[in-house]
């Protein structure tokens, strides 16, 4: 069997673009993504993809125009340019690399997730042996805090028949176990939510009918009962292992939405830091008048936290360029206009065109589920703007697969008609 070196090169590029996002170095991620964009640039793109990109392009453009009238440092402007371009670059390279690997798209997607899962499990084993501890905080600090990509792989493996995944039954079982274990060991609340949303989406329960209403209602009821049980157990803040994870779940509904925070109480401040960022962002932007509320403070703007806090880079900072909340970050840079286009991008992704092609129907479901998850992801984790995020690549990749399947089906239908 002849090996195509060009195909291998593009497959390696795809793996690198996904894997690099797991490293805590946005500079490296942006460098790999921008080089990949240049190496895989196409002459034409679908209207559907360009429409999706246009929402993020408007957000960027508004922030860019506003910054012209400001006096920010060049470094801060360039830094924000890389942040606000990230979803656009991710969508493009995901789309481009899928088209360049169209015959093995799903296989490439799953094998990439498998390698990442194996690496994650090995890192966990190393951390446990090295520290002699099952402390969740220590493990997650070294092995990673979440993995959206592995959740997508797990969903596709669980519903492999819906996507015509051409793997043996043994491979499906083995890959599902490995990726499933790795995904669970992140103990990430958002990944559990993501899995639930995508699972429900693939089953078609986000299509409005009597059955879907009953199913969604049952899921909501089960979640409420489960949360009530956690409240009854009352896990403590400094608990170890599973208790620490349950404590994070206990405070999850309040953490991003709290409106009053005692900044002098370090427990209240730390547990509700995301809400603190949101409150400060609204206050800072609103103080500067209706123009800033509508169009933001532009590229290069920063949020004054009013005190120094310990960052993820283990340094103390008072002025930060982005916050955990994607809506608030866009509000800071592009105002309410930017937020409107961010919401429109989610709605656009939700409104997938109906199809009679079996695999395309389920790809539509997956994209619809993604749009619903982005509502949550933007609120707690910056959505597609998160420095560690790779969902924009996934979305671009899935859009390309969908278009390839539609094109192949149209071609086969036309051949059949000629005969």
Distance between the termini: 32 Å
pLDDT under 50 segments (min length 5)?
Answer: 411-419
Report the C-alpha radius of gyration, rounded: 22 Å
Mean pLDDT: 86
Biggest sheet strand order reads: 1-2
Outline the structure in words.
The protein is mainly alpha-helical and 419 residues long. Helices cover 70% and strands 3% of the residues. It contains 17 helices and 2 strands. Strands 1-2 form a two-stranded antiparallel sheet. Strand 1 and strand 2 form a beta hairpin. Helix 1 (5-19) packs across helix 4 and helix 7 packs parallel to helix 9 (189-202). It is globular, with a radius of gyration of 22 Å.
Layout of helices and strands:
Elements: H1 5-19, H2 26-39, H3 47-68, H4 74-100, H5 105-131, H6 136-143, H7 148-158, H8 169-185, H9 189-202, H10 210-233, H11 242-251, H12 266-271, H13 273-287, H14 290-295, E1 303-310, E2 316-320, H15 326-350, H16 358-381, H17 391-418
Antiparallel strand pairs: 1-2
Helix pairs in contact: 1-2, 1-4, 2-4, 3-4, 3-15, 4-17, 5-6, 5-7, 5-8, 7-8, 7-9, 9-16, 13-15, 15-16, 16-17
Summary, kept brief:
The protein is mainly alpha-helical.
Key phrases:
single chain; 419 residues; mainly alpha; two-stranded antiparallel ribbon
